[in-house]
Amino acid sequence: MLVTEQDALRQEIKAWGDMYGRDRTALIPILQEIQRKHARISEYAMQIVADMLDIHPVEVYGVVSFYSFLDHKPKGRFVIRLCRTISCDMHDKDRVARQLQNDLGIRFGETTPDGRFTLEWANCIGMCDQGPALLVNDHVFTRVTPDKVHDILEGCRRAMGVHAQEQMQEQLV
Ligand code: FES
Predict the structure, then answer these.
(1) Pairing mode, if any, of strands 117-122 and 78-83?
(2) How far is 41 from 32, CA to CA, in rounded Å?
(3) Residue 61's pLDDT band (boundaries 50, 70, 90)?
(4) CATH entry, 78-172, from 3.40.50.10540, 3.30.70.100, 3.30.1330.30, 3.40.30.10
(5) Residue 157 CB contacts under 8 Å (≥ 6 apart), including other chains
């Protein structure tokens, strides 16, 4: 990580400290902000948070490791979390899981080599009467079928295509 990136990260974390406070109760909200913005929580970020909240880095690491929605490993641009709890399980979540794995060419817990998609399991996300349910980042999809998996992934790919085109246009201006 470049020095300027480290400075930027430090400034961001300080701003979240101003927002959430600088004691233990701020730990999870700050970690969630880092995760949302950077898709992972680096060791450097954990160190800054520990210094700012005046707690031991091991404590920060312990929290990051404990909560599955916080992660120190890099994740894809789209994190897909399929619910595996009982209602979704009874509504054929296995077929959806197989389709996701086949379409993406990865297994659960993995990220595609191009860094676009990460596939994970989730526990109940509160959509039990409309299962199988999955999350793509913060967006919920219900009554997912193998066909719908294809549409969801196409939507993600299109969104990335549009984004990439916008970036190219900005560079050309
Ligand atoms: S069991 Fe899947 S959303 Fe509740």
Answers:
(1) parallel
(2) 9
(3) confident
(4) 3.40.30.10
(5) 116
Best mutation site among 127, 134, 135 for ligand 1 pocket (most ligand atoms within 8 Å of CB): 127
DSSP-derived 3-state class of residue 106 = coil
Domain ranges (residues) in the chain: 3-66, 78-172
The strand order across the sheet containing 78-83 reads: 117-122, 78-83, 134-136, 139-141
Ligand 1 midpoint to CA 166 (Å): 37
Which tens digit of pLDDT belongs to each residue from 73-119? 778 899 999 999 899 999 999 999 999 999 999 999 999 999 999 99
The whole-model pTM stands at 0.62
Cα distances (angstroms) measured from residue 71 to each of 38, 44, 131, 132, 151 = 10, 13, 26, 25, 27
The three-state secondary structure class of 111 is: strand
Distance between Cα 131 and ligand 1 center (Å): 6
Pocket around ligand 1: residues whose beta carbon is below 6 Å from it? 83, 85-88, 124-128, 131, 133
